[in-house]
Structures are given as C-alpha cells and as structure tokens.
Amino acid sequence: MGFDLGSLLSQFTGGGTPTNAADHFDKVAQSASPDLLSQGLSAMFHSDQTPSFGQMAGQLFGQANPNQQAGMLNQMLAGMGPGVLASLVNGAQGGGLGAILGQLTQGGTAPTAVTPDQASKLTPEQVQVIASHAEQHNPGIVDEMSSFYAQHAGLIKTLGGAALTIALAKMAEKHQG
Q: 3 falls in which pLDDT band (50, 70, 90)?
C-alpha cells in the first residue's frame, strides 16, 4: 500500500482543519521534497495566524537539543553582518546573551561558530530576541531558517496544530500548482 502525498495534502486545501495535523505533518515531512517542506514552513512563519517568527524560533529553540540549538543560532547569526551582531550585543541585557554574542563579534571579524555548550546556556526568550533582531535586519532570514527547520521537521510539531495546518495548506497549494 503506497502513500499518496497529493491525497493527504488535498485535505488541507479546503480551509478545513483536520484534527490530526501532527500525524499528517509527520507523513508529509517524510515524503515531501525539502524545498516543498521549506516553502510550507516559510508560509507558516510569515502567516498572520501564527505568533511572530521570533516567538516561534524561541519556542523551537526551547524544544531542541544542544546540537540543534547551536545549528539554529549559527544559521541565524550567519544571516547577520558583524555590525548587526554588534548592535545586538550592545543592546543585550546582561548574562549569557551579551557574553556569547560578544565573543562572536570580537575584533569586528566574521562570527565564529556557537558551540552546543554555549547554545544550551541561552534561554528561549534570548533566542526570541536574536531571531526578531535577525528578521528586522534581514527579512530573508525567515526563508533561510525555514530550510534549516525542514531538516529538523520533528521540532516543528511542537508548534501545534494551527501552525502545522498552515504549513500543510501551503505545501498542498504548491504541490497542486
């Protein structure tokens, strides 16, 4: 018995909200191309029916393991130039965020990689600030992060059914077109 991606996605084109969006998302994430998955996630992050990108990035960070956290931060920080990073460091409120970001911008050189140990010391709220700042200075960061999250689709399920339904609906639209 084969899995029909188109049939599953068609459930999300009529505006309805299937009750098992997480299960559907799992199946789609395993079968869809990374590009299709990334486009669906980008639509979800840009939707006015979901929390802000920064808030969702912070939530995803809180659910991730230290290696995933480091990957998220490195992807976000790579999208910001040293000047943007420096402005974030100067505006950082105390502790871990300012210290870690300060290490990354020393000497005005390109940022070095955040280690899993460094990443695990940040809070989801601090990452929300970083993500919001990144989006403000580089709106394309949302698409870049969508590609990252497409590789870690299990984390996306933690955002809940409404967000997953938006992502699935966009994937259905792209798959049909």
A: very low
Work out the angle between the directed axes of helices 124-137 and 95-104 (0-180°, nearest 10).
Answer: 50
Q: Could you report the per-residue pLDDT of 34-73, keeping only the tens digit for each?
A: 999 999 999 999 999 999 999 999 999 999 999 999 999 9
- Phi then psi for residue 145, to 5 deg, are -70, -30
Q: Evaluate if residue 173 carries a pLDDT over 60.
A: yes
SS (H, E, C) 62-127: HHCCHHHHHHHHHHHHHCCCHHHHHHHHHHCCCHHHHHHHHHHCHHHCCCCCCCHHHHCCCCHHHH
Q: Do residues 46 and 38 make contact, with C-beta atoms less than 8 angstroms apart?
A: no
* C-alpha pair distances (Å), 148 with each of 69, 70, 104: 11, 12, 21
Length of the chain: 177
What's the pLDDT score for residue 25?
85
Would you state the structure tokens that stand for residue 156, as one six-digit string? 């996306």
Class of residue 43 by CB neighbours under 10 A (exposed 0-12, middle 13-18, buried 19+): buried
